[in-house]
Protein backbone atom coordinates (compact mmCIF):
# COMPACT_ATOMS: atom_id res chain seq x y z
CA UNK A 1 0.00 0.00 0.00
CA UNK A 2 1.34 3.44 -0.91
CA UNK A 3 0.55 6.95 0.25
CA UNK A 4 0.00 10.08 -1.88
CA UNK A 5 3.73 10.36 -2.65
CA UNK A 6 4.08 6.75 -3.69
CA UNK A 7 5.92 5.66 -0.52
CA UNK A 8 5.15 2.25 0.87
CA UNK A 9 2.96 2.36 3.95
CA UNK A 10 4.26 -0.42 6.17
CA UNK A 11 2.40 0.42 9.36
CA UNK A 12 -0.97 -1.19 8.44
CA UNK A 13 0.78 -4.45 7.53
CA UNK A 14 2.80 -4.50 10.75
CA UNK A 15 -0.31 -3.66 12.75
CA UNK A 16 -2.21 -6.47 11.07
CA UNK A 17 0.49 -9.05 11.68
CA UNK A 18 1.13 -8.10 15.30
CA UNK A 19 -2.53 -8.06 16.31
CA UNK A 20 -3.30 -11.19 14.33
CA UNK A 21 -0.29 -12.94 15.83
CA UNK A 22 -1.34 -12.23 19.40
CA UNK A 23 -4.94 -13.29 18.77
CA UNK A 24 -3.80 -16.47 17.04
CA UNK A 25 -1.55 -17.28 19.99
CA UNK A 26 -4.41 -16.57 22.39
CA UNK A 27 -6.84 -18.79 20.45
CA UNK A 28 -4.37 -21.68 20.38
CA UNK A 29 -3.62 -21.26 24.07
CA UNK A 30 -7.33 -21.28 24.89
CA UNK A 31 -8.07 -24.33 22.73
CA UNK A 32 -5.22 -26.37 24.19
CA UNK A 33 -5.58 -25.04 27.74
CA UNK A 34 -6.38 -28.51 29.19
CA UNK A 35 -3.14 -29.82 27.70
CA UNK A 36 -0.74 -26.96 28.43
CA UNK A 37 -2.07 -25.71 31.79
CA UNK A 38 0.48 -26.72 34.42
CA UNK A 39 -2.18 -27.02 37.15
CA UNK A 40 -5.90 -27.36 37.69
CA UNK A 41 -7.22 -23.77 37.67
CA UNK A 42 -9.59 -24.57 40.54
CA UNK A 43 -7.10 -26.49 42.70
CA UNK A 44 -6.26 -24.71 45.95
CA UNK A 45 -3.11 -25.03 48.04
CA UNK A 46 -3.07 -22.64 50.98
CA UNK A 47 0.55 -23.52 51.71
CA UNK A 48 1.47 -22.13 48.28
CA UNK A 49 -0.56 -18.94 48.55
CA UNK A 50 0.78 -15.72 46.97
CA UNK A 51 3.92 -17.21 45.48
CA UNK A 52 5.66 -14.64 43.23
CA UNK A 53 6.28 -15.17 39.50
CA UNK A 54 9.41 -16.94 38.27
CA UNK A 55 11.56 -13.80 37.95
CA UNK A 56 11.19 -12.77 41.61
CA UNK A 57 12.98 -14.09 44.65
CA UNK A 58 11.12 -16.86 46.45
CA UNK A 59 9.35 -18.11 43.34
CA UNK A 60 8.42 -21.76 42.79
CA UNK A 61 9.37 -23.10 39.31
CA UNK A 62 6.08 -25.03 39.26
CA UNK A 63 4.14 -21.74 39.24
CA UNK A 64 5.57 -19.59 36.44
CA UNK A 65 3.28 -16.59 37.01
CA UNK A 66 2.81 -17.14 40.72
CA UNK A 67 -0.30 -17.99 42.71
CA UNK A 68 -3.20 -16.09 44.26
CA UNK A 69 -4.22 -15.90 47.91
CA UNK A 70 -5.76 -19.39 47.75
CA UNK A 71 -2.73 -20.97 46.12
CA UNK A 72 -4.29 -21.28 42.67
CA UNK A 73 -1.98 -21.08 39.66
CA UNK A 74 -2.30 -17.69 37.93
CA UNK A 75 -1.13 -18.97 34.53
CA UNK A 76 -3.65 -21.82 34.47
CA UNK A 77 -6.48 -19.53 35.47
CA UNK A 78 -5.51 -17.03 32.76
CA UNK A 79 -5.56 -19.76 30.11
CA UNK A 80 -9.02 -20.94 31.11
CA UNK A 81 -10.19 -17.35 31.43
CA UNK A 82 -9.09 -16.75 27.85
CA UNK A 83 -11.42 -19.55 26.71
CA UNK A 84 -14.43 -17.79 28.19
CA UNK A 85 -13.37 -14.38 26.86
CA UNK A 86 -12.94 -15.69 23.31
CA UNK A 87 -16.21 -17.63 23.34
CA UNK A 88 -18.08 -14.50 24.40
CA UNK A 89 -16.22 -12.40 21.81
CA UNK A 90 -16.92 -14.80 18.94
CA UNK A 91 -20.56 -15.65 19.67
CA UNK A 92 -21.73 -12.26 20.92
CA UNK A 93 -19.79 -10.36 18.24
CA UNK A 94 -21.16 -12.50 15.40
CA UNK A 95 -24.77 -12.31 16.58
CA UNK A 96 -24.51 -8.57 17.14
CA UNK A 97 -23.05 -8.13 13.66
CA UNK A 98 -25.75 -10.18 11.94
CA UNK A 99 -28.62 -8.37 13.65
CA UNK A 100 -27.28 -4.83 13.52
CA UNK A 101 -25.75 -4.99 10.04
CA UNK A 102 -28.90 -6.51 8.54
CA UNK A 103 -31.13 -3.80 9.99
CA UNK A 104 -28.67 -1.08 8.99
CA UNK A 105 -28.43 -2.36 5.42
CA UNK A 106 -32.21 -2.53 5.10
CA UNK A 107 -32.72 0.95 6.55
CA UNK A 108 -29.94 2.58 4.53
CA UNK A 109 -30.88 1.10 1.17
CA UNK A 110 -34.68 0.93 1.24
CA UNK A 111 -35.09 4.25 3.12
CA UNK A 112 -38.62 5.67 3.37
CA UNK A 113 -40.84 4.42 6.18
CA UNK A 114 -38.57 1.40 6.74
CA UNK A 115 -35.65 3.68 7.53
CA UNK A 116 -37.86 5.87 9.70
CA UNK A 117 -39.08 2.96 11.85
CA UNK A 118 -35.64 1.39 12.27
CA UNK A 119 -33.92 4.72 12.97
CA UNK A 120 -36.45 5.71 15.63
CA UNK A 121 -36.09 2.28 17.24
CA UNK A 122 -32.31 2.71 17.29
CA UNK A 123 -32.60 6.16 18.90
CA UNK A 124 -34.89 4.84 21.62
CA UNK A 125 -32.65 1.84 22.27
CA UNK A 126 -29.51 4.01 22.56
CA UNK A 127 -31.16 6.19 25.20
CA UNK A 128 -30.50 3.46 27.78
CA UNK A 129 -27.03 3.51 29.45
CA UNK A 130 -25.36 0.38 28.02
CA UNK A 131 -23.53 -0.86 31.12
CA UNK A 132 -26.51 -0.32 33.42
CA UNK A 133 -28.75 -1.96 30.83
CA UNK A 134 -26.45 -4.99 30.73
CA UNK A 135 -26.44 -5.28 34.52
CA UNK A 136 -30.26 -5.03 34.54
CA UNK A 137 -30.54 -7.78 31.94
CA UNK A 138 -28.18 -10.05 33.89
CA UNK A 139 -30.20 -9.41 37.04
CA UNK A 140 -33.38 -10.46 35.19
CA UNK A 141 -31.93 -13.39 33.23
CA UNK A 142 -29.59 -14.63 35.93
CA UNK A 143 -25.86 -15.18 35.76
CA UNK A 144 -24.37 -17.51 33.18
CA UNK A 145 -22.56 -17.55 29.86
CA UNK A 146 -25.74 -17.35 27.77
CA UNK A 147 -27.03 -14.40 29.80
CA UNK A 148 -23.78 -12.51 29.22
CA UNK A 149 -23.97 -13.13 25.46
CA UNK A 150 -27.62 -12.05 25.30
CA UNK A 151 -26.86 -8.89 27.26
CA UNK A 152 -24.02 -7.91 24.90
CA UNK A 153 -26.11 -8.54 21.79
CA UNK A 154 -29.06 -6.57 23.15
CA UNK A 155 -27.06 -3.48 24.06
CA UNK A 156 -24.57 -3.37 21.14
CA UNK A 157 -26.50 -4.13 17.93
CA UNK A 158 -27.27 -0.43 17.47
CA UNK A 159 -23.60 0.36 16.76
CA UNK A 160 -23.66 -1.84 13.67
CA UNK A 161 -27.07 -0.58 12.59
CA UNK A 162 -26.13 3.11 12.67
CA UNK A 163 -22.78 2.77 10.89
CA UNK A 164 -23.96 0.31 8.24
CA UNK A 165 -27.06 2.43 7.58
CA UNK A 166 -24.90 5.48 6.87
CA UNK A 167 -22.57 3.46 4.63
CA UNK A 168 -25.49 1.88 2.75
CA UNK A 169 -27.09 5.28 2.14
CA UNK A 170 -23.84 6.57 0.68
CA UNK A 171 -23.35 3.53 -1.53
CA UNK A 172 -26.99 3.60 -2.63
CA UNK A 173 -26.46 7.01 -4.24
CA UNK A 174 -23.61 5.73 -6.44
CA UNK A 175 -23.98 5.32 -10.20
CA UNK A 176 -23.25 1.60 -10.14
CA UNK A 177 -26.39 1.00 -8.06
CA UNK A 178 -28.52 2.92 -10.55
CA UNK A 179 -26.94 0.95 -13.38
CA UNK A 180 -27.79 -2.34 -11.67
CA UNK A 181 -31.41 -1.29 -11.29
CA UNK A 182 -31.62 -0.17 -14.92
CA UNK A 183 -30.27 -3.58 -15.92
CA UNK A 184 -33.32 -5.13 -14.26
CA UNK A 185 -31.81 -6.38 -11.01
CA UNK A 186 -34.19 -6.47 -8.04
CA UNK A 187 -33.67 -4.16 -5.08
CA UNK A 188 -32.92 -7.12 -2.82
CA UNK A 189 -30.40 -8.48 -5.32
CA UNK A 190 -28.79 -5.07 -5.68
CA UNK A 191 -28.43 -4.78 -1.93
CA UNK A 192 -26.73 -8.17 -1.67
CA UNK A 193 -24.49 -8.05 -4.75
CA UNK A 194 -23.68 -4.35 -5.05
CA UNK A 195 -24.14 -2.60 -1.69
CA UNK A 196 -23.03 -5.32 0.72
CA UNK A 197 -19.58 -6.03 -0.83
CA UNK A 198 -18.67 -2.34 -0.61
CA UNK A 199 -19.90 -2.07 2.98
CA UNK A 200 -18.23 -5.32 4.03
CA UNK A 201 -14.84 -3.78 4.97
CA UNK A 202 -16.61 -1.49 7.44
CA UNK A 203 -18.60 -4.43 8.82
CA UNK A 204 -15.40 -6.44 9.32
CA UNK A 205 -13.77 -3.56 11.18
CA UNK A 206 -16.85 -3.15 13.37
CA UNK A 207 -17.00 -6.90 14.02
CA UNK A 208 -13.46 -7.11 15.34
CA UNK A 209 -13.99 -3.95 17.37
CA UNK A 210 -17.18 -5.47 18.80
CA UNK A 211 -15.30 -8.60 19.80
CA UNK A 212 -12.94 -6.44 21.83
CA UNK A 213 -15.88 -4.64 23.41
CA UNK A 214 -17.49 -7.99 24.24
CA UNK A 215 -14.31 -9.03 26.05
CA UNK A 216 -14.41 -5.79 28.08
CA UNK A 217 -18.11 -6.16 28.93
CA UNK A 218 -17.60 -9.75 30.07
CA UNK A 219 -14.65 -8.65 32.20
CA UNK A 220 -16.75 -5.86 33.77
CA UNK A 221 -19.57 -8.27 34.57
CA UNK A 222 -17.09 -10.76 36.00
CA UNK A 223 -15.52 -7.98 38.05
CA UNK A 224 -18.88 -7.35 39.78
CA UNK A 225 -19.72 -11.09 40.00
CA UNK A 226 -22.47 -10.93 37.37
CA UNK A 227 -20.92 -13.21 34.77
CA UNK A 228 -20.57 -16.97 35.25
CA UNK A 229 -20.04 -18.81 38.53
CA UNK A 230 -17.44 -17.20 40.77
CA UNK A 231 -15.62 -20.54 40.95
CA UNK A 232 -14.78 -20.45 37.23
CA UNK A 233 -11.66 -18.49 36.25
CA UNK A 234 -12.33 -15.24 34.39
CA UNK A 235 -10.05 -12.31 33.70
CA UNK A 236 -12.48 -9.88 35.34
CA UNK A 237 -12.75 -12.07 38.43
CA UNK A 238 -8.97 -12.32 38.69
CA UNK A 239 -8.67 -8.54 38.38
CA UNK A 240 -11.26 -8.06 41.12
CA UNK A 241 -9.41 -10.47 43.39
CA UNK A 242 -6.02 -8.95 42.61
CA UNK A 243 -7.28 -5.46 43.39
CA UNK A 244 -7.78 -6.42 47.04
CA UNK A 245 -4.21 -7.73 47.38
CA UNK A 246 -2.29 -5.44 45.06
CA UNK A 247 0.42 -4.70 47.65
CA UNK A 248 0.91 -8.32 48.67
CA UNK A 249 0.52 -10.05 45.28
CA UNK A 250 0.60 -7.53 42.42
CA UNK A 251 0.91 -10.28 39.80
CA UNK A 252 -2.65 -11.51 40.41
CA UNK A 253 -3.89 -8.14 39.09
CA UNK A 254 -1.25 -7.16 36.56
CA UNK A 255 -1.01 -10.30 34.41
CA UNK A 256 -4.73 -10.70 33.60
CA UNK A 257 -5.10 -6.93 33.22
CA UNK A 258 -2.24 -6.88 30.71
CA UNK A 259 -3.76 -9.82 28.80
CA UNK A 260 -7.12 -8.04 28.71
CA UNK A 261 -5.57 -4.79 27.47
CA UNK A 262 -3.50 -6.55 24.79
CA UNK A 263 -6.48 -8.59 23.57
CA UNK A 264 -8.80 -5.59 23.24
CA UNK A 265 -6.07 -3.56 21.51
CA UNK A 266 -5.38 -6.44 19.11
CA UNK A 267 -9.04 -6.77 18.15
CA UNK A 268 -9.20 -3.05 17.45
CA UNK A 269 -6.01 -2.95 15.40
CA UNK A 270 -6.94 -6.11 13.52
CA UNK A 271 -10.19 -4.51 12.41
CA UNK A 272 -8.46 -1.39 11.14
CA UNK A 273 -5.83 -3.44 9.37
CA UNK A 274 -8.40 -5.68 7.67
CA UNK A 275 -10.42 -2.66 6.58
CA UNK A 276 -7.36 -1.11 4.96
CA UNK A 277 -6.44 -4.40 3.32
CA UNK A 278 -9.83 -5.30 1.87
CA UNK A 279 -11.26 -1.84 1.16
CA UNK A 280 -11.86 -1.80 -2.63
CA UNK A 281 -11.22 1.94 -2.82
CA UNK A 282 -7.81 1.68 -1.15
CA UNK A 283 -6.94 -1.37 -3.27
Automatic annotation (TrEMBL):
Top-rank lineage group of the source organism: Bacteria
Compartments (UniProt record): Cell membrane
One cellular component term from this protein's GO annotations in UniProt: plasma membrane
Gene3D superfamilies the UniProt entry points to: MetI-like
Alphabetical list of Pfam families matching this protein: BPD_transp_1 (PF00528), OppC_N (PF12911)
Topology class, membrane: Multi-pass membrane protein
GO BP: any one term: peptide transport
Key words of the record: Cell membrane, Membrane, Peptide transport, Protein transport, Transmembrane, Transmembrane helix, Transport
Matches recorded under CDD domains: TM_PBP2 (cd06261)
InterPro entries named among the record's database cross-references: BP-dependent_transpt_permease (IPR050366), MetI-like (IPR000515), MetI-like_sf (IPR035906), OppC_N (IPR025966)
Residues covered by the ABC transmembrane type-1 domain: 82-271
Protein transport among keywords: yes
The keyword Flavoprotein belongs to this UniProt entry's keyword annotation: no
Segments traversing the membrane: 16-36, 84-110, 131-155, 203-228, 249-270
Similarity field: Belongs to the binding-protein-dependent transport system permease family.
Annotated protein name in UniProt: ABC transporter, permease protein
Organism: Roseibium aggregatum (strain ATCC 25650 / DSM 13394 / JCM 20685 / NBRC 16684 / NCIMB 2208 / IAM 12614 / B1)
Amino acid sequence: MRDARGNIRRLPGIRLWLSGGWLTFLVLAAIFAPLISPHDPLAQDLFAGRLPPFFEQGADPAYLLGTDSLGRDVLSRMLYGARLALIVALVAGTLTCLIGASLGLIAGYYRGWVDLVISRFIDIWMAFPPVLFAILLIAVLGTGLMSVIIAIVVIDWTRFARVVRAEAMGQGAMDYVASAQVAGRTRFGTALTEILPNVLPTIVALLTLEMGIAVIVEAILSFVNLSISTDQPTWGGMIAEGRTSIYQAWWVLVFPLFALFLTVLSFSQLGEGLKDHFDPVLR
